[in-house]
Amino acid sequence: MRIEASSRLHPTRKSALGQFMTPNSIAEFMVSLFDKLYNNIRLLDAGAGIGSLALAFLDKSFPNASSIHIDAWEVEQILLPYLKSNLIHYQKEAMHKGSLVQFNIHDDDFIESAVLSLVAKRNSHYTHCIINPPYKKISSDSKHRFLLRKIGIETVNLYTAFLALCILLLQSKGQMVAIVPRSFCNGTYYKPFRRFLLETCCISHIHVFGSRKKAFKDEGVLQENIIIKLIKNHPQSKIRISTSHDDSLSDYNVREIEANEVIMQKEFDFFIHIPTEPKPVTNSPLFENILSQISLGVSTGPVVDFRVKKYCSNKPNGKSVPLLYPQHFSNGELTHPKEIKKPSWITVNAETIKWLMPKGFYTLVKRFSAKEEKRRIVAYVVNPHELAGDYFGFENHFNVFHVNKHEIDENMAYGLALFLNSSLVDNYFRTFSGHTQVNANDLRLIKYPSKRLLMELGRKYKHKKLTQSQIDQAISQHE
After folding, report:
1. pLDDT tens digits, 346-365
2. Most CB contacts within 10 A, which of 123, 269, 341, 431?
3. What is the C-alpha separation between 100 and 94, in angstroms, rounded?
């Protein structure tokens, strides 16, 4: 029924509403995370689709709960008949088993309804919430953004807006299980939402899928998702971390770890790391220093090409210097100039000089990786002997390691690139970053080897073409 209903949705509207319906195996697993279900349950399901999550919840609750009330929100008219039919069917089945199931289907905008309810200060009364919210960015001038700000919620995506509203609508000690992208776990954009979540709820359980493609394989979703269980107004204790390759859960594994290994505070911000390995990689001596301790900084590539378009060209002139894009690198090697769809040169003048860096060695990391690229972090070394000009332009799709906007030591540049290209670093990075973008702030959160060790690695391995296995072997010798 889910596949049939999904096929009837228009792709454009499906994308606009961020609609991805939940497979049965995932729905059943999500429900299994709730504590034992008792009487007088009030369940919230926002973005209910055909009712897969609510029905799975009912399947589990029948043995213990004699009274269940469900409020289900769904704005898609095509899905409403499926949702209503399914809930009526379970209502009749419950009656035969001596249980009372009541439900309301709301076909209006959940954000608008929830905000109006919260502004009116109606009591938060849901005992449980199960949710697969829509995934869609919210523009800063949209109606949804305005409504959310009325109740103090600042967020950039529908899924975090739905989560925040559901948390507010839960009663104290109410439980929520949600399947969501893990992009909220770090980064500046989701900082207000993270603080709100961690101030109002404890994290009880997080499940991670090993494959991006498998959790919503029928829907073609490549977003990396997690399942998270939250308990409102409950003290934070140990967190259960579970993993499986896909939605079959055939290789399910779970362990309990201390909360401070998951919830990490950096200055005035919180980040959620999800360590899937039994021993956190940060126990290694390779992860001892923050960047400032090894006299390095990292910044987003300063050249935003469309802002200086009139100074960029495909051919050099007497005043131009190299402008580097990720496309100039292939298999770790730099080719410049190169015929790509982007300009390879930028003119040096009073307007552009502030966006350029002096000639020298630099380590670069791509900001964007392909969805299924083997490594999330891909690092390169810029060798000034391979380029002409007294300055270099680094386009915005790079992160640039530097010393006060100037070059770094040659051995340091090569040692740092070797370290960043290791599987050890990549695995660690994935514990707190679930999206394919690598931001400068993400790289500041990583800890690094000592300057001495980076220099040693650089001297030993610079100018050598190493396979991934050889890189990992070189790094493992220093664990």
Report:
1. 999 999 999 999 999 999 99
2. 431
3. 6
